[in-house]
Amino acid sequence: MIILVAAAGVLAALIAPAGSASPSTRAASFSPCDISGKQQQLGASYVNSLKVQGVSCGKAEKVIKAYHQCRHANGGPAGHCPTPVIGFNCKDGTRTGVPNVQYDARAKCRKAANPARRIKSAYTQNT
């Protein structure tokens, strides 16, 4: 009986770590882009940050500018972009701010043909 209990304890110790361990794969991190001096030239009132994964900063700037142009063409400053821009699908996160004055939001874009290519942007839009 003691041997059975000891064997069960050893078996449980061997199985628990394997079953509860998280995968060792780590998602690639985003790299920040230097947009100093360009914050007001990227389509929103102010683009506060731009980060990329698998995309150059130059390409990300073009995508974000096209995204904001699409938003403006589809509802003005508070609009939404219903179509891909330069091969990227973009979505806004929650908008916070002062109604009818301005809002802050984050845009996330993914390359339609390769979802590992991603762009994140935070911006302020005056309405």
Q: How would you characterize the overall build of this protein?
A:
This protein has 127 residues and is α+β, with helices and mostly antiparallel strands. The protein has one domain (30-126). 28% of the residues lie in helices and 29% in strands. The chain has helices at 2-20, 57-73, and strands spanning 31-32, 46-53, 88-92, 96-98, 102-111, 118-126. Strands 1, 2, 3, 4, 5 and 6 form a 6-stranded antiparallel β-sheet that branches. Strand 4 (96-98) and strand 5 form a beta hairpin.
Helix fraction? 25-40%
Beta content comes to 25-35%
Low-confidence parts: 1-25
End-to-end separation: 76 Å
Number of helices: 2
Largest sheet: 6 strands, antiparallel
Number of strands: 6
Instruction: Give the helix/strand class.
Output: alpha+beta
Oligomeric state of the chains present here: single chain
What is the number of domains?
1
> Which radius of gyration do the C-alpha atoms yield?
23 Å
Mean pLDDT: 84
Shape: globular
- The helix-strand sequence is HEEHEEEE
